[in-house]
Fold each of these.
Amino acid sequence: MEYKLEFAKTHMKVAIDDQNLLGVLHANEVDVKLTGAQEVRRALENPIGTKKLQDLVKPGEKIVIITSDITRPLPSKVIIPCILEGLTGAGVKDEDVTIVFALGCHRNHTEEEKKYLVGEGVYNRIKCIDSDMKDFVHFGYTENGTPIDIFTPVAKADRRICVGNIEFHYFAGYSGGAKAIMPGVSTRGAIQANHSRMVDEKAHAGNLNTNPVRNDIEATIPFVPIDFIVNVVLNEQKEIINAVAGHYIEAHREGCNFLDSFYKIGIKEKADIVITCAGGFPKDLNMYQAQKALDNAKHAVKKGGIIILVASCKEGLGEEVFEEWILGAEKSEELIERVKADFKLGGHKAAAIAMVLQNSRVFLVSDLEPDFVKKIFLEPYGDIQDAYEQALEILGSHAKVILIPHGGSILPVLTL
């Protein structure tokens, strides 16, 4: 049977014989009553753990709306107009509102990208700026010694509204919630200190309560309070099917519970071959982002198996330190030892890839030059079918396959 996988803004096809296929991992069926802006408005009218937004803010207050950058699939242009309706209804003037794109360590946006993210109407109404890790206010340290260094316009605002999407995160447990602040509008040193806890065995996708990375993220917030969040869960078509609003922990946890019911998928056995896709644009812009799908896929592949990762990566690796680490290593194993001895943000994703390679081979179907792919310890292909047929040749014609069309979202869980 033929299957279609997203690749940049288009798609690729792969034919898999039914006798080889263990399963195609899609989201579970959930009861969806409202979608898109209607669902966002429902959440805003029914906040969790706080008053309604219009009852929290006051005219004259300086308000920042912190939202995701271009590398995230968050539909800011759907969510932010709904938030602005509430602010306007409370008497807040447009000139007192600033939209901050939380870059973390990512590149700056062009003005056209900012316009694309929030929509032309909002872009023309509201000041839109990128965060800048060199412009910050220092508030002290968390109990774990992580610096609390926050982008100045966010730090000095009277009210902070955080917007995000909730999906599994390979060491913070889940995205969303307070991640808009840390790492979203924090400094490289602060992010590095927080992310260094990724080597802890409790820092993994789907874990919240005992996750040292998530706990450290949320320890930042008493110093820089979040007044309100609006978080959403997207389906495989990137449509909003669930929204939560209100308290940065209570509402976030409610969203995480919904995500589990939707995207945590049980498997009865692991496969010889896992074919996974980052999910197309913008999730496969670069390897730094596409790595999430690879990390999820590792939970579904047998030791000695092959993961086929489908990701355009037309912007290359996507992060300077990540590139320096992975291109500077002679063997992938060096990256794991390096991150243990000298954790560096960016290098941590290189080490994460190396950890996958300890268990399986990785075939990369991308727009990258073959020689470059080999330099990052992956095996290059330009077409999924070619990669799959080569995997069958290596592992045998009866090799079992799991297909994960939206690998950045789906978390396979082995059920014994």
Amino acid sequence: MPDLAEPVLANEILDTSPTFVVGIDASGRTMYMNGTMLGALGYTRDEVIGQDYATMFVPVRDHDMLRRIFGDLVSSRGTTYNENRVLTRSGRELLVEWHGRSVYDDDGAFKYFYGVGIDITGQKRVREALYRSQQRLALHFHQAPLGMIEWDIDFRVVDWNPAAESIFGWSREQATGHHGQDLMVPPEIRPYVADIWEQIKQAKGPVRARNQNITKDGRLITCEWTNTSLVDEDGEIVGVASLVSDVTERVKEEAAMREREREQAATIEQLSAPVLDLWDGVLAMPVVGGIDAARAARMTESLLEAIVRSSARFTILDLTGASTMDASIASHLGDMIRATGLIGSECLVSGLGPGMARTLVELDVPLAVRTFGTLRAALRHAIRAARL
């Protein structure tokens, strides 16, 4: 009596297999489909047995491809491999990786073929997403305006994008495999760069630096670097990625701006203590804005130097442009008036308005000097007195 347990056991194994299993006869009709495939496609076994496989499960655009596959299976005595789409009841397409084989009777006549398939729809999406990500990364690497360099752990070039070629003059082929110190670092700063390299290998985050580099044609340029160590899944550093930009022109502009600011500061300082030669033996110093201790010292120094240089008999302090008057400013003015008197020049004060005069009275600050409402009046007095 034949043992019926073996085919029953085989069917149970096929039904619970995590792969798709399908048997198709010579006319293209479904003979068998395991539970895994039925569940994925959304059918019962009764609905699929005897149905034309291509019509029920294959998109129309793939019918010609499926016929070629079936033809290969009939003529082949080995296993075939292919990927094709399979339709679910809802119309969704699954991408399945099939391994097919033909079965023959004892006389060598073709009986049917069967396929074992793996649903790779999710894997395909992941592969495609990974491919697109790699493509975008490659485009970014090659089209980025910043130089992008990958180094190995020994500071040798692994990869080098077109922007790096433009900055340093070396092509990717010329740069690959060369040590960074030899390729682009001037001898005088190699110790500094070596120290930066050690910092990069020990740091957990980016290490930034600005230093001079040298190009293929020998030009010295200034570059800004952002360097990040590349770490594998075991936490071991396997290389370094660098972003680099040529900031030579920006550094020159910054230096030029600092020089302009220095010159402007010097000019402003001179203007903050101007001494005007109004007449033979008559000098004037306009006081504009507020006066602090530092400015008062500069004004006094400039005024005394001018008095000595010109042997001025009269010095006019014009307060027309002074912004405020308080005890501190009055004290500074008093110091200047006393200093001019000590070197033989009589000090006159002009432009002292009613508000300032009232403030001086309230503060009880005597200037002990002749005052005039306008610079013209003070100058007229000085000229007359100088003629006597």
Amino acid sequence: MNSQIDVFVHRDVVEFADGVYWIGALDPTLRTFDIILSTANGTTYNAYLVKGSDGVAVIDTVKKNFSDEFFARLESEVDYSDIKAIVLNHLEPDHTGALPELMRRAPQAKLYISRRATSMLKALLKPTTGAFEYTTVNTGDTVELGDRTLRFLHTPFLHWPDTQRTYLEEEAVLFSGDVFGCHYCDKRLFNGQVGDFRFSFDYYYAHIMRPFKKHVMDALKLIEPLRLKLIAPTHGPILRERPRRYVSHYRELSTSSLATEIGNSDQSMIIFYMSSYGNTARMAEEIAEGAGDLDGVRVSIWGETEPFVDLIEEADALLFGFPTINGDAVKPVGDLLSSLAVVNLKGKLGGAFGSYGWSGEAVRMIEDRMRGLKMHIPREGLRVKLIPTEEELEACRSFGLQIAEVLTGKSSEKRGIDFADLM
């Protein structure tokens, strides 16, 4: 093989490294994935075959309704009796749909999963199989295929607790699971040949990996030292040209830039608000002034509700001010809080405030939603009927200062004690 790694096509099977094959499936007409993801270019369910001198390994499978394609490709290369190992990097149904039938056809094969995947595997297989055996693996564990070695990397929460990566040492191929993947279907398969998939790559990261940035960084510590000729994800193009740039891009996407702007010692508070007649706006301004009186707190105030995900994700405290209309929180706050499902908010401080005419339910509704997002609410929200008085504006300043004191540790209250933290 030449330095660019030749591609051989045989009955739709693609060999992209010596003895390493793509045996997955293409789904070009898919337009929505898992209800919430737009897939304008469809997707692929990438599964792989590794041939060694002492047996064969299958790495991941496909969505159930694409099983026929998967088995046809698999059978064109090997007999089921040759299969020594079945590796699952992730147990979501789009990667394990063909697993029960594969286990039935290759009963001698050993199944390898991460140590966090056992309960998920039992739930997955119980309707279709009886007793089955599996082996759990951790970082550094290996499977030998004679002249081939598969080494496992334990990388949980990317994006389920069970996720891991598999590295083929001799060919320097990383089977990366959902990491470095995207929903982009192109039968040419390789990043240097397919169309422009940059948007799909970043969109996938934003919706799938972004909430788990800490775990991304932990995984990169294991991945970056590896020799990498190829990255083979479970969705989207196989990364054959300059694979390391995608690793670097993940680090860039997962690294906070806020510290370079305000310093590591400062705390960031963002106040979002909407105001019908200026009353909630007055409250927001006074809360910001009160919080800003404390050294070490940087306060930003935004009079609109666009989902500034980067700002929200890097902030230490988030306050939301909205009026109550017809006994409810206004729609924009619901849209804003719903959009935060892609952000890890656990442990961030939160607060709510707002003006109202008749009732004032919006503040409590916002607080309940923040608790559902596992935020910590250190102070009961502020409600002001119609136009705030001077006393009420002073209460707003005090509210902002009290939250800032919790934020900086200058309050006697221990930050982070909240019912949401116990969920």
